[in-house]
Amino acid sequence: MSQPPLSVSIRRLEEELGVQLIERHSRGVTLTTEGALVVEQAQEVVRVADNIRLFAKESLGGTRGLLRLGFVGSATFNLIPSLIPRFRALFPNVTLKLSEQVSAEIVAGLLSGDLDAGLLRTPLFDVTGLILTPLSVDRLVLALPYGHAFAERSEIKLEDLANQAMILWSRTTEPWVRTMIDINFSAIGIAPVVVEEASHIHTMLSLVECGLGAALVPSIVRRSSPDRLNFVDLTCKGSPIELGFAMAVREGQGRPLTANFAGVAIEVLQQNSG
Protein backbone atom coordinates (compact mmCIF):
# COMPACT_ATOMS: atom_id res chain seq x y z
CA MET A 1 0.00 0.00 0.00
CA SER A 2 1.51 3.32 -1.04
CA GLN A 3 2.20 6.02 1.55
CA PRO A 4 0.34 9.35 1.48
CA PRO A 5 2.22 12.06 -0.53
CA LEU A 6 2.81 14.14 2.62
CA SER A 7 4.48 11.23 4.40
CA VAL A 8 6.69 10.62 1.38
CA SER A 9 7.67 14.30 1.25
CA ILE A 10 8.52 14.36 4.96
CA ARG A 11 10.70 11.26 4.65
CA ARG A 12 12.54 12.76 1.70
CA LEU A 13 13.13 15.96 3.67
CA GLU A 14 14.43 13.96 6.64
CA GLU A 15 16.83 12.14 4.34
CA GLU A 16 17.99 15.40 2.79
CA LEU A 17 18.52 17.11 6.16
CA GLY A 18 19.88 14.04 7.89
CA VAL A 19 17.62 14.46 10.94
CA GLN A 20 14.34 12.95 12.11
CA LEU A 21 11.58 15.52 11.99
CA ILE A 22 8.64 13.56 13.42
CA GLU A 23 8.09 10.69 15.83
CA ARG A 24 5.80 8.10 14.29
CA HIS A 25 3.62 5.98 16.58
CA SER A 26 0.30 4.15 16.50
CA ARG A 27 -1.74 7.18 17.59
CA GLY A 28 -0.22 9.53 15.06
CA VAL A 29 2.92 11.66 14.86
CA THR A 30 4.61 14.34 16.95
CA LEU A 31 7.36 16.77 16.09
CA THR A 32 10.85 16.07 17.29
CA THR A 33 12.92 18.93 18.71
CA GLU A 34 14.65 19.26 15.34
CA GLY A 35 11.29 19.10 13.59
CA ALA A 36 9.94 21.95 15.71
CA LEU A 37 12.96 24.08 14.77
CA VAL A 38 12.49 23.31 11.08
CA VAL A 39 8.80 24.28 11.29
CA GLU A 40 9.71 27.54 13.02
CA GLN A 41 12.22 28.40 10.30
CA ALA A 42 9.77 27.40 7.57
CA GLN A 43 7.15 29.73 9.03
CA GLU A 44 9.70 32.55 8.99
CA VAL A 45 10.47 31.82 5.33
CA VAL A 46 6.74 32.00 4.53
CA ARG A 47 6.47 35.31 6.41
CA VAL A 48 9.43 36.76 4.51
CA ALA A 49 7.98 35.58 1.21
CA ASP A 50 4.66 37.22 2.05
CA ASN A 51 6.47 40.46 2.90
CA ILE A 52 8.39 40.35 -0.37
CA ARG A 53 5.14 40.01 -2.28
CA LEU A 54 3.67 42.92 -0.30
CA PHE A 55 6.75 45.12 -0.84
CA ALA A 56 6.73 44.33 -4.55
CA LYS A 57 3.03 45.17 -4.82
CA GLU A 58 3.47 48.45 -2.91
CA SER A 59 6.54 49.40 -4.94
CA LEU A 60 4.66 48.72 -8.16
CA GLY A 61 1.86 50.98 -6.94
CA GLY A 62 4.24 53.74 -5.86
CA THR A 63 3.38 53.49 -2.16
CA ARG A 64 6.74 52.15 -0.97
CA GLY A 65 10.35 52.79 -1.91
CA LEU A 66 13.08 55.43 -1.94
CA LEU A 67 12.69 58.81 -3.65
CA ARG A 68 15.87 60.88 -4.03
CA LEU A 69 14.71 64.44 -4.61
CA GLY A 70 16.75 67.49 -5.57
CA PHE A 71 15.17 70.95 -5.34
CA VAL A 72 16.16 74.55 -5.96
CA GLY A 73 16.19 77.02 -3.10
CA SER A 74 13.07 78.90 -4.16
CA ALA A 75 11.06 75.71 -3.54
CA THR A 76 11.61 76.24 0.19
CA PHE A 77 9.47 79.40 0.20
CA ASN A 78 6.09 77.87 -0.54
CA LEU A 79 6.33 74.22 -1.61
CA ILE A 80 8.74 72.13 0.45
CA PRO A 81 7.36 73.09 3.92
CA SER A 82 3.84 72.04 2.86
CA LEU A 83 4.66 69.26 0.41
CA ILE A 84 6.94 67.05 2.49
CA PRO A 85 4.62 66.65 5.54
CA ARG A 86 1.65 66.07 3.22
CA PHE A 87 3.45 63.44 1.15
CA ARG A 88 4.74 61.64 4.23
CA ALA A 89 1.24 61.52 5.68
CA LEU A 90 -0.15 60.01 2.47
CA PHE A 91 2.78 57.67 1.76
CA PRO A 92 4.38 56.73 5.10
CA ASN A 93 6.28 53.79 3.57
CA VAL A 94 8.22 55.99 1.14
CA THR A 95 11.66 57.15 2.25
CA LEU A 96 12.56 60.64 1.04
CA LYS A 97 16.17 61.69 0.57
CA LEU A 98 16.14 65.48 0.11
CA SER A 99 18.89 67.66 -1.28
CA GLU A 100 18.85 71.40 -2.02
CA GLN A 101 20.86 71.92 -5.19
CA VAL A 102 21.33 74.39 -8.01
CA SER A 103 19.61 73.64 -11.31
CA ALA A 104 22.78 72.46 -13.06
CA GLU A 105 23.39 69.90 -10.30
CA ILE A 106 19.78 68.69 -10.42
CA VAL A 107 19.88 68.15 -14.19
CA ALA A 108 23.23 66.35 -13.95
CA GLY A 109 21.96 64.20 -11.07
CA LEU A 110 18.84 63.20 -12.98
CA LEU A 111 20.76 62.30 -16.13
CA SER A 112 23.35 60.28 -14.18
CA GLY A 113 20.74 58.44 -12.12
CA ASP A 114 21.87 59.93 -8.81
CA LEU A 115 18.46 61.62 -8.41
CA ASP A 116 15.00 60.21 -9.03
CA ALA A 117 13.23 63.56 -9.35
CA GLY A 118 14.00 67.26 -9.30
CA LEU A 119 12.03 70.41 -8.55
CA LEU A 120 13.41 73.28 -10.58
CA ARG A 121 12.65 76.39 -12.62
CA THR A 122 11.81 76.26 -16.30
CA PRO A 123 12.27 76.69 -19.20
CA LEU A 124 15.29 74.40 -19.58
CA PHE A 125 16.91 75.51 -22.83
CA ASP A 126 18.65 72.81 -24.90
CA VAL A 127 18.19 70.04 -22.32
CA THR A 128 17.29 66.58 -23.59
CA GLY A 129 16.67 63.31 -21.80
CA LEU A 130 14.28 64.68 -19.18
CA ILE A 131 10.50 64.60 -18.84
CA LEU A 132 8.94 67.65 -17.16
CA THR A 133 5.67 67.78 -15.24
CA PRO A 134 4.61 71.46 -15.00
CA LEU A 135 3.59 72.40 -11.46
CA SER A 136 3.05 76.16 -11.52
CA VAL A 137 3.83 79.42 -13.31
CA ASP A 138 5.46 82.35 -11.54
CA ARG A 139 6.85 85.70 -12.66
CA LEU A 140 9.98 87.67 -11.96
CA VAL A 141 9.88 90.66 -9.64
CA LEU A 142 12.55 93.18 -8.74
CA ALA A 143 14.08 92.76 -5.28
CA LEU A 144 15.43 96.03 -3.87
CA PRO A 145 17.24 97.06 -0.69
CA TYR A 146 15.18 99.01 1.80
CA GLY A 147 14.98 102.70 0.91
CA HIS A 148 15.88 102.26 -2.77
CA ALA A 149 14.60 104.97 -5.12
CA PHE A 150 12.45 102.43 -6.99
CA ALA A 151 10.91 100.96 -3.84
CA GLU A 152 7.80 103.16 -3.86
CA ARG A 153 6.89 102.40 -7.45
CA SER A 154 4.10 99.94 -8.18
CA GLU A 155 5.80 98.64 -11.31
CA ILE A 156 9.20 98.73 -12.96
CA LYS A 157 9.92 98.32 -16.65
CA LEU A 158 12.97 96.27 -17.53
CA GLU A 159 14.37 99.21 -19.50
CA ASP A 160 14.36 101.27 -16.26
CA LEU A 161 17.21 99.03 -15.06
CA ALA A 162 19.67 100.19 -17.75
CA ASN A 163 22.08 101.75 -15.24
CA GLN A 164 21.05 99.80 -12.15
CA ALA A 165 23.62 97.64 -10.38
CA MET A 166 22.29 94.09 -10.70
CA ILE A 167 22.84 90.82 -8.88
CA LEU A 168 22.00 88.08 -11.37
CA TRP A 169 21.92 84.31 -11.38
CA SER A 170 25.18 82.53 -12.13
CA ARG A 171 25.52 81.30 -15.71
CA THR A 172 27.34 78.22 -14.41
CA THR A 173 24.90 77.00 -11.78
CA GLU A 174 21.59 78.52 -12.96
CA PRO A 175 22.18 78.78 -16.71
CA TRP A 176 18.55 78.50 -17.82
CA VAL A 177 17.06 81.24 -15.64
CA ARG A 178 20.05 83.43 -16.47
CA THR A 179 19.58 82.79 -20.19
CA MET A 180 15.93 83.77 -19.95
CA ILE A 181 16.88 87.02 -18.20
CA ASP A 182 19.62 87.76 -20.74
CA ILE A 183 17.17 87.16 -23.61
CA ASN A 184 14.75 89.72 -22.17
CA PHE A 185 17.47 92.33 -21.66
CA SER A 186 18.74 91.71 -25.18
CA ALA A 187 15.22 92.11 -26.59
CA ILE A 188 15.14 95.73 -25.40
CA GLY A 189 18.76 96.45 -26.33
CA ILE A 190 20.15 96.67 -22.79
CA ALA A 191 23.26 95.08 -21.30
CA PRO A 192 22.68 94.83 -17.52
CA VAL A 193 25.28 96.18 -15.11
CA VAL A 194 26.16 92.95 -13.29
CA VAL A 195 28.03 93.58 -10.03
CA GLU A 196 27.59 90.12 -8.50
CA GLU A 197 26.37 86.65 -9.48
CA ALA A 198 24.71 84.20 -7.11
CA SER A 199 23.80 80.52 -7.22
CA HIS A 200 21.29 80.39 -4.37
CA ILE A 201 18.20 82.51 -3.81
CA HIS A 202 18.98 83.11 -0.13
CA THR A 203 22.46 84.39 -1.04
CA MET A 204 21.00 86.65 -3.70
CA LEU A 205 18.51 88.19 -1.27
CA SER A 206 21.25 88.71 1.31
CA LEU A 207 23.38 90.57 -1.22
CA VAL A 208 20.41 92.77 -2.11
CA GLU A 209 19.78 93.43 1.57
CA CYS A 210 23.41 94.54 1.90
CA GLY A 211 22.74 97.23 -0.69
CA LEU A 212 24.99 95.79 -3.39
CA GLY A 213 22.31 95.97 -6.05
CA ALA A 214 18.88 94.82 -7.22
CA ALA A 215 17.92 91.31 -8.31
CA LEU A 216 15.31 89.57 -10.45
CA VAL A 217 13.70 86.82 -8.38
CA PRO A 218 10.55 84.65 -8.47
CA SER A 219 7.60 86.53 -7.01
CA ILE A 220 6.92 83.71 -4.53
CA VAL A 221 9.92 84.76 -2.43
CA ARG A 222 8.24 88.01 -1.41
CA ARG A 223 5.95 86.01 0.92
CA SER A 224 8.74 84.97 3.28
CA SER A 225 11.51 87.53 2.85
CA PRO A 226 12.95 90.03 5.35
CA ASP A 227 11.12 93.32 5.90
CA ARG A 228 14.33 95.11 4.93
CA LEU A 229 13.70 94.17 1.30
CA ASN A 230 11.24 95.71 -1.14
CA PHE A 231 9.70 93.91 -4.10
CA VAL A 232 8.28 95.65 -7.16
CA ASP A 233 6.38 94.10 -10.06
CA LEU A 234 8.40 93.90 -13.28
CA THR A 235 7.39 94.02 -16.95
CA CYS A 236 9.18 93.71 -20.26
CA LYS A 237 7.41 95.25 -23.25
CA GLY A 238 4.26 95.52 -21.17
CA SER A 239 4.11 91.89 -20.02
CA PRO A 240 5.38 90.03 -16.96
CA ILE A 241 8.46 87.85 -17.38
CA GLU A 242 7.14 84.40 -16.59
CA LEU A 243 9.10 81.39 -15.43
CA GLY A 244 7.76 77.96 -14.69
CA PHE A 245 8.23 75.49 -11.89
CA ALA A 246 8.29 71.80 -12.73
CA MET A 247 9.18 68.34 -11.55
CA ALA A 248 11.73 66.62 -13.77
CA VAL A 249 12.55 62.92 -14.12
CA ARG A 250 14.91 61.15 -16.48
CA GLU A 251 13.33 59.94 -19.71
CA GLY A 252 12.37 56.28 -19.41
CA GLN A 253 12.61 56.34 -15.60
CA GLY A 254 9.07 57.41 -14.76
CA ARG A 255 7.64 55.41 -11.85
CA PRO A 256 4.32 55.37 -10.02
CA LEU A 257 6.22 56.73 -7.01
CA THR A 258 7.34 59.89 -8.84
CA ALA A 259 3.88 60.28 -10.37
CA ASN A 260 2.36 60.13 -6.87
CA PHE A 261 4.83 62.76 -5.68
CA ALA A 262 4.00 65.07 -8.58
CA GLY A 263 0.28 64.69 -7.86
CA VAL A 264 0.74 65.72 -4.24
CA ALA A 265 2.93 68.66 -5.30
CA ILE A 266 0.23 69.94 -7.65
CA GLU A 267 -2.39 69.55 -4.92
CA VAL A 268 -0.28 71.47 -2.40
CA LEU A 269 0.49 74.30 -4.83
CA GLN A 270 -3.20 74.66 -5.66
CA GLN A 271 -4.04 74.87 -1.96
CA ASN A 272 -1.27 77.41 -1.34
CA SER A 273 -2.46 79.63 -4.18
CA GLY A 274 -6.12 79.40 -3.15
TrEMBL record:
It comes from the Bacteria. This is HTH lysR-type domain-containing protein. GO terms for cellular component: protein-DNA complex. Belongs to the LysR transcriptional regulatory family. InterPro entries: LysR_HTH_N, LysR_subst-bd, WH-like_DNA-bd_sf, WH_DNA-bd_sf. Residues 1-32 form the HTH lysR-type domain. Keywords: DNA-binding, Plasmid, Transcription, Transcription regulation. GO terms for molecular function: DNA binding; DNA-binding transcription factor activity. The keyword tRNA-binding does not apply. Pfam families: HTH_1 (PF00126), LysR_substrate (PF03466).
